[in-house]
Amino acid sequence: MFSSFGSILVQVFVPLALPVIAGMLLKKFKKLDTQPLSVLALYLLSPSIIFTTLLNADVSSEDLKITVAFSLINLIAMWGISVLLGRLLRLGDAEKSGLTLVASFTNCVNYGLPLVLLAFGQVGLDKAAIYVVLQILIVNTIGVFFAARSHFSIKKAGLAVLKLPALYVAALAGLLRLGDIHLTESLSTGVNLLANAYSPVVLVILGAQMISQNSGSWEPRLQRAFQAGLALRLLIAPLLSALILILLGADRTLLGVLLILASMPTAVNAVILAEQFGASPKFVSRCIVWTTLASFIVLPVLLLLTGMNL
């Protein structure tokens, strides 16, 4: 157990920590403005990783059905619980939107994929591909709607979604696969370069946000939202995900992979959206920090419970 934990720290967390630390240092000493980076990640880098992942995903039809069903059911359930909590706690519109982002979206790309590969091998990574793509699509569509809803009308929030390239890139990738059309080597290399830039850029943004979130006053309303976010991500999400997967009849490996991915800390994308659309980024970034720290304990326990001993 302890040797496995040390292996995770060395192989997964140390590489991920470097761009985060870089972002913290740039924010502290160079006053890094993350707004342009958020635009870059949302409108260019994220669509690139969607495109490349969709082109290379290899899963069975049964796994595809269960993964799609789980993604939708889990999203709706977590959204409903977060809305209910937001009303019960009498949060403001921005905090309600931020709580929805915290509850609904996990860091399944930058953190989840390396961990799945380590725990489940290539088979697990293949099973994770569709879920990851769905999450990226959901974050770049429904996530934008959740974030934008705090300041825009439903109509304007919907229009903000339609302006994003993620939908159109996913459709293009699907058409290329259906037509068995392959990119030229030069085009493929160019898209891969953009996709590979996604992780370091969003992790730099996270590091900068981790420094920023300590500044300024911390109102009681934000504290209530923060506590609700931790409960949703660390307790409710794993229990709810396990129940849904059992009811859907997922096999042992698929159940383990999707449970781990759905129990990841709050997605870095959440603070990008929160910053872009004013959905209480200070509260969201604090949830990202603390759910990430807590995951060092929660995720190894889940891996042991699913029978995947690292």
What keyword list fits this structure?
single chain, 310 residues, mainly alpha, Na+/H+ antiporter like fold, 83% helix, 0% strand, globular
Describe the structure.
This protein is mostly helical and 310 residues long. The chain has a single domain (2-9, 34-305), classed as Up-down Bundle (Na+/H+ antiporter like fold). It has twelve helices and no strands. The chain has helices spanning 2-30, 34-56, 61-88, 93-104, 108-148, 154-162, 166-178, 185-212, 220-248, 252-262, 268-277, 281-305. α2 (34-56) packs across α5 (108-148). It is globular. The termini are close together. The mean pLDDT is 83.
Percentage of residues in helical conformation: over 70%
Task: Summarize model confidence as the mean pLDDT.
Answer: 83
Q: Assess the beta-strand content as a share of residues.
A: under 5%
The structure class reads: mainly alpha
Rg = 18 Å
**Name of the CATH architecture:** Up-down Bundle
CATH class, named Mainly Alpha
Count of separate structural domains: 1
How do the helices and strands follow one another from N- to C-terminus? HHHHHHHHHHHH
Number of beta-strand segments = 0
Distance between the termini: 8 Å
Q: Helical segment tally?
A: 12
Could you name the ranges where pLDDT drops below 50 across 5 or more consecutive residues? none
Largest sheet: none
Task: Specify the overall morphology.
Answer: globular
Q: What name does the CATH topology carry?
A: Na+/H+ antiporter like fold
